Amino acid sequence: MNPEQGHSKTYLNRLLKLSAFVMLFILSWLYCRDQVVFTVNHIFVHGQYEMSKDEIIRTSGIYQGASMFNLKIADGVRHLIEKPYVYTTYISRQFPDIVNIHVIERQPVALIRLKQDYGLDAFATMLPEPVHYSFESMPVITGIDPELPFEMGKQTFHPDIRHAINFVNYVRQFNEELRSYCSHISWSDDKGWIIQKDRDYPPIYIGKKDLEKRFDILDAFIAKMHEENKDMRDFKYVSLRFNGQVIVRD
Description:
The chain has about 250 residues and is an alpha/beta fold. The protein is about 35% helix and about 25% strand. The strands form 2 sheets. The protein has a 9-stranded mixed beta sheet, covered by helices on one side.
């Protein structure tokens, strides 16, 4: 056998082996695709809080028994981010039979009272009234025109609501004691910001400007009331609107 014939035979053998391997791979893939090996058996949801796992899975359109190769992942993501509480999400396959749905939710930081109560996140995104978040940790914003138009799950740029959420974000930097006096927040065109701990406590008129200075004064005033063992509930109202001076009415 001459060298050229030897090389041709070797090349042909390699080609046959490669063809057999490719054919075996294709047949194996076709078999697995049509069997239960590559069907969805487990769907795991990560990061959800307000939305239930069942709601997220149902919204994604992914179901047990579906082919791992035929999942419409882009459609699932699109359907999920249409939900008001879903900020972003991604869906991944984990072969042979697992799908992971990762969700990052919007987090309400306040309730806003219009015709009914809604959630409001730190970026002024309107949300359905939360079910799983504690209402006790969220201030309630009132005094906003209940007829204001808005789109659920979208940021609202109405100045009254933007003004209110900026106020809430500002208040969140203070200590828990001072924040508790901001459980109810209302805006008045005449008097500015009005805060109140609850119905048993007097309203506190903060005013419209120099908020940082006035909150520092209020913080010091509350601390002094504790030191002197006085009860804020003895006052009808507290006002800081006049040059930051604390004015109380018994």
